[in-house]
Amino acid sequence: MLFAAERLMTSCHLSIDLVIGDVAITQGKSYWACCVDPSSYLVKVGVGLESKLQEWFQVPQDVVSPRYDPDSGHDSGAEDTTVDAPPPYAFLTIGMGKILLSHGSALTSRDPNGCTVPLPPRIGICLDYEQGKVSFYDAVSFRELWECGVDCSGPICPAFCFIGGGALHLQELVANKQERKVTIGNLAKLD
């Protein structure tokens, strides 16, 4: 199921809820952490260009068909024009107490393919705006889980996508270190 989550936006009829941070990042390095409830169905944690996040989740009705294939099927090369450009968003996919990692992941896990690792108690996200890079960490051991490029040509927002219900606790980086509970879907209402 985790492998299918990357195509979930165009091939599934589950409820999808998007929470976008209310503060956009336009410079420097930013770090925050969250705890994802291990019983969450699927949660995507990451960042994205403010202008592209809403667009990404506004999928036309005819695209929601499981038969939809974003590839045109011909080899015109038109699909390859943006291969070198960083994507406008980067998400870590979490579900069933595990994290799905890209094949290019930095973490060497017990799994020989490096595809999934157990969900740590807390996930840290570090955005380096000038470098156009986002890194995801086990925020307890500070071990890097995954790193990738992201388009930082405009304001970047933290974003959380809940697919089929889920919950997380967002750790605000303030002096009192209070945690705010964010829940979506079948578990509870958004605080």
Automatic annotation (TrEMBL):
Protein name as it appears in the record: TRI46 protein
Organism: Sterrhoptilus dennistouni
PROSITE patterns in the record: B302_SPRY
Coiled-coil annotated spans: none
GO biological process: anterograde synaptic vesicle transport; axonogenesis; microtubule bundle formation; neuron migration
GO cellular component, one term: main axon
Transmembrane segments: none
B30.2/SPRY domain span: 1-179
Signal peptide positions on this chain: none
Gene that produces this protein: Trim46_1
Listed InterPro entries: B30.2/SPRY, B30.2/SPRY_sf, ConA-like_dom_sf, E3_ligase_FN3/SPRY
Gene3D superfamilies: 2.60.120.920
